[in-house]
Amino acid sequence: MTIRPEQAKEIIRDAIANLNEELPEVERVDVKPSTVLFGMGAEIDSLSLVSLVVDIETALSDKFNLDIALADEEATARPVLPFSTVQALEEYILERANESR
Q1: How many C-alpha atoms does 50 have within 13 Å on its Cβ side?
Q2: CATH no. for residue 11?
């Protein structure tokens, strides 16, 4: 079984919705491909990013029986971090999920 792009988007959207429930209204994050999650102009802090990644990893495990560590050496060794934007995160999820099958 592979994960389709719309499934990856749903996982990210749900994780951001969970994060937004914990944030004050003025700090809530939009779910757009260009939303910056890490680095210059990030809309969330590092603790929120960790929470987001954990939620996504949990969803991948629960919904697809995939145990994937998204924040590993492979992620940090890339020239563009997979957590830089929502779009980059989606692409990374698809890559990692589909290579593990």
Answers
A1: 3
A2: 1.10.1200
